[in-house]
Specification:
Low-confidence stretches: 354-358
Largest sheet: 7 strands, antiparallel
Number of strands: 22
Strand content: 25-35%
Helix content: 25-40%
Distance between the termini: 51 Å
Strand order of the largest sheet: 1-2-3-4-5-6-7
Structural class: alpha+beta
Shape: globular
Order of helices and strands: EEEEEEEEHEHEHHEEEEEEEEEHHEEEHH
Radius of gyration: 21 Å
Length: 358
């Protein structure tokens, strides 16, 4: 069976066995034994079909070559969205590829709705699921009890419906694109470009055709100005120009640290921007770590063991609009980074403590 943008879905004995894009790149291979999954192979990861006893997830499937696992499910007819124990260990794109295969399998087996049943309903997971499912729920609704569920290691379903809506992945140099109703995402060197807001975005190219018919461009923006263009695509995702490398930042503030007073003010703004249960931890995390300006390529912020870094171009592009705008831009950049750091620490503590529980 061939999909809208050329992806070939190969089926044998009623089971999906391979997803191959229009340029011949295999994005997923599935091997079955007696009607159950033996293994799923996506770029960078292999999910083993055998069920193991995992200290955090209970019944689960091991993921190789990294040391993590995904909660067990019926791959022939998946009805739940599983939890990956430590998704940060997966190579970039592997977790999303697994979820996209899950959406393909659910749609093929006429499963109309799936729900998440795990302890980590994070903003990052919600946004990842939107690449292969659609829902009427908001991010705030999905993440409302993220702290409590993580602390309790809750595995019951969240009453939010996700409808299978898999994308088609097409390989490009050093990445891939994702298409559903046109070009929705570009992933290049691990950076995801999507939407028309944020740092890494997809916009209409400033060429001749009228709006709506213009090619699409993957670009990096800070504030209200474009930092660079990575690539240009037609409406079906064929590459017209690029991909190009991200230029080196030449900002005069590179390497400079934030004064303590400014860091404290930023901490209050970040606490307001994260899910409410994480507010106190978010403020403590910001106050406890030095913040410096750095060249982060396509990222606006990054948390490291020695502190937090912000892209210096953010200062260059936003500072002319006033310090209030700079502070809000910084808080917006830090909120997802801080949320992921806190939830990751909770997951690590939960996993470690469960291994030594009597």
């Amino acid at each position: 069976m061939q999909l809208r943008y050329g992806t070939v879905v190969e089926v044998a004995d009623g089971r999906v066995i391979r997803l191959t894009d229009r340029v011949g790149h295999v994005h997923a291979e599935l091997r079955w034994a007696a009607g159950t999954l033996d293994q799923l192979i996506v770029t960078g990861a292999l999910v083993r079909g055998a069920v193991i006893d995992h200290p955090l997830l209970g019944e689960a499937h091991a993921i190789a070559p990294v040391d993590t696992a995904i909660s067990a499910l019926d791959w022939a007819r998946p009805t739940r969205i599983p939890t990956i124990a430590e998704p940060g260990r997966l190579p970039p794109g592997s977790g999303g590829a697994i979820m996209n295969v899950l959406a393909h399998l659910a749609r093929r087996s006429d499963v109309g709705v799936l729900r998440y049943a795990g302890p980590y309903p994070t903003p990052a997971l919600f946004r990842s699921l939107l690449r292969s499912f659609h829902t009427r729920a908001t991010e705030a609704e999905f993440t409302a009890d993220v702290y409590g569920r993580a602390m309790r290691l809750t595995r019951d379903e969240i009453a939010i419906d996700f409808v299978p809506d898999p994308c088609e992945r097409v390989a490009i140099p050093d990445g891939w694109i994702e298409l559903r109703r046109g070009l929705e995402r570009v992933v290049h060197h691990g950076v995801t470009y999507e939407g028309d807001t944020g740092v890494a975005r997809i916009v209409e190219s400033d060429l001749d055709p009228p709006p709506g018919e213009r090619p699409r461009a993957a670009e990096i923006w800070f504030g209200d100005s474009r930092y660079c263009r990575i690539a240009t695509f037609d409406l079906d995702g064929h590459v017209l120009a690029g991909p190009f490398p991200i230029p080196t930042c030449q900002s005069p503030v590179l390497g400079r640290a934030f004064p303590d007073a400014l860091r404290d003010a930023i901490a209050d703004l970040v606490a307001e921007a994260v899910p409410p249960p994480l507010a106190a931890d978010a403020r403590d995390l910001i106050v406890a770590r030095p913040i410096t300006w750095a060249d982060l390529g396509a990222r606006s912020a990054r948390a490291r063991a020695g502190g937090i870094e912000l892209h210096a171009a953010l200062w260059d592009r936003v500072a002319p609009h006033g310090l209030a705008r700079v502070a809000l831009a910084i808080a917006e950049a830090l909120a997802p980074v801080v949320t992921n750091a806190i939830v990751g620490a909770i997951a690590h503590r939960s996993s470690t403590s469960s291994k030594f529980a009597p």
